[in-house]
Amino acid sequence: MLHKVLHVLAILSGVAAPLISASVSLSASSNSSGIKSESTNQAVALDNEEKRWLSEQGTFTLGVDPSWAPFEFVDDDGKYSGIGSGYIDLTSQRLGVDFKALPGLTWTEVIRKARLGQIDILPTIARTPKREKFLNFTKPYITFPMVIATRKDAAFVDSIAGLEGKRVGVVKGYVSQELIENDHKSVNLVLVKNLSEGLQQLSCSNSDLI
User: Fold this and answer.
1) What is the pLDDT of residues 75-129, one digit of tens each?
2) What is the span of the domain harbouring residue 194?
3) Are residues 100 and 92 in contact, defined by beta-carbon separation less than 8 angstroms?
4) Which of 57, 80, 164, 186 could form a cystine bridge with 101, CB 3.0-4.6 A?
5) Mean pLDDT in residue range 168-175
6) Averaged over 178-190, what is the pLDDT?
7) Could you tell me if 129 and 179 lie in one domain?
């Protein structure tokens, strides 16, 4: 039945060719093959069995990154916000179901709970082979490039090859950690809790790039 949730969340797909695509993932078995796009303001047609299943599930829990603006974040009022939240709101309207972002979790904790089956949906997550072992993914609904930030006094870096031998700040559990650990073993990772901490470490010269 979760394919109906996937159906709505996969309305749009990425059109560029960057390093990261944001998809929706569900930590339960589903089948998203054969999904076609529909008008975004149209309710999804459900049969009686699907309606009954959805009503039995109650509220779906969301695992979100609290500090990954503009893609998703928790605002000053504690509200789930960002691009991903817009897709969740649309899905709620089209399916008539409720979603609730679990509060107070770091991204590392979100991934751990998803692996344990304690979170239903991750609205904004990049697809990797490692994550495919415990999550089901929609097609990407947004695609964007990965960027490298340095201090103003640092040498210009124009590609990932420029990371070799450098201390690179990465949020623990982000897809960039997996990519670098797998393919660029000479990079010295400086793992941080969130982007704010990473930028602070960069400003204090505790890392060379982020």
Assistant:
1) 999 999 999 999 999 989 988 899 999 999 999 999 999 999 999 999 999 988 9
2) 146-210
3) no
4) 80
5) 94
6) 93
7) no
What amino acid occupies position 157?
Answer: V
**For residue 151, is pLDDT > 50?**
yes
- 122 and 185 share one domain: no
* Residue scoring higher pLDDT (68 or 29): 68
- The answer to whether 44 and 51 have CB atoms below 8 angstroms apart is no
